[in-house]
What we know:
Blueprint lengths: L3 H11 L4 E2 L2 H8 L11 E3 L4 H13 L4 E4 L18 E4 L7 E4 L4 E5 L4 H8 L4 E2 L10 H7 L6 H4 L6 E7 L7 E4 L25 E8 L1 E2 L3 E9 L5 H12 L3 E8 H10 L15 E9 L10 H13 L6 E7 L1 H16 L3 E8 L5 H15 L4 E2 L2 E2 L5 E8 L9 H18 L11 H11 L2 H14 L11
Parallel strand pairs: 2-4, 3-4
Antiparallel strand pairs: 1-2, 5-6, 6-10, 7-11, 8-9, 8-10, 12-14, 12-15, 13-14, 13-18, 16-19, 17-19
Amino acid sequence: MIDHTHIAALTGILGDKGLVTExxxxxxxxxxxxxxxxxxxxxxxxxxxxxxxxxxxxxxxxGIPLIPQSGNTGLVSGSTPDATxxxxxxxxxxxxxxxxxxxxxxxLRVGAGFRLSDVNQKLERHGLFFPIDLGADPRLGGMLATNxxxxxxxxxxxxxxxxxxxxxxxxDDDGTIVDLTxxxxxxxxxxxxxxxxxxxxxxxGIITECVLNLEPIPKQVATAYLVPxxxxxxxxxxxxxxxxxxxxxxxxxxxxxxxxxxxxxxxxSLKNPFQGGNVPDYVILAEISRxxxxxxxxxxxxxxxxxxxxxxxxxxxxxxxxxxxxxxHEMWALRHAxxxxxxxxxxxxxxxxxxxxxxxMAFCDRMKDEMPQTFPEVTICDFGHIxxxxxxxxxxxxxxxxxxxxxxxxxxxxxxxxxxxxxxFNGSFSAEHAIGRKNQAYYDLYTQQKIKDMAHGLKxxxxxxxxxxxxxx
Length: 473
């Protein structure tokens, strides 16, 4: 419990709307997007960077632990309090005071509390968007804190690549505000300090504002489902697409049969596009795009894609077994339904892994071979961003199985999968979801001691107060 004197002081700083103390009103801030939940002492809801600064300084001086929370859409228990009831959640949901668009610079200075969908809706009339395509709808502060990627990483990169500047509040006695909101794309005057805070899960400081690079909204899009001749032919197929399409290629998303079947079962309105309703063992959603309106005499993108696929089909040792071009909204609807479909098919134990592109299918094939012998109850429902080396390696346990609620079972499963991914394939245990409490043990296990020492030193320098869910010690 937080002492009433602290509640009174924080109410004086943030106002009545800036503080939540009633248990029923805190529930939304205490429960994460997937299974994780805790108990908060209270919820702080500042509106400005200055309010964040004063509130953080107060909490640091009085030893109140802080958990920064953005859209609370993360999947690794990085934005929810623990079960002690001693931590205060600092939510960014009211940090929406600033929205300054610079068309000449093609950039946006914006409050960290805006949701991605709200930003892109406001930008649409200007023909621009923030090019991070996600199944969830996070707030910007959390996107930067976790360095999200998304389905079009292949063309646009991750959040780190598309962030020009940030403003940060440090968890120290002064709630120090660090202004790194440069709108420059080129500034080689020393360390790029904003990168110190992007991707570190909010533990080094709370991002309150950001300056984002924007991209033109594609005016022409063509999509196709590709069925590779085999798992080993996925990479040759990707290389063939890249060779022939270059910068036109904006997505190359892999979807396993089990993941597609789960989505079709969960969302009856989805069309089953496969002949006879038979879902292939593996299918790829490929997208190409142009940012300009169709020009007279220019070959339509659908025709471009069909021509390229015909060339690949007719090549020696063709990596393509089947393909068909279709409406983008229908094809992406299936891709975006995968997460919810898999989530509703049983108890989900999710992994966000990254590999060298050439190792993805080898890892998945090994899992398909060894999983039935090692964990026979588990069904693999993988999908992911094959073009950038990422895979959402989702494992489903039947809801009526005792293993679904067995924490030791989940720990052994995670230990086994991560050991193979990291030690045998030199992969990453977190491609784009950052660390959080779920991945803390694996950060401790797989991170070189010298790097942990440096990270701990930076944490002490930037935010010595009790901030975030991640320990960089």
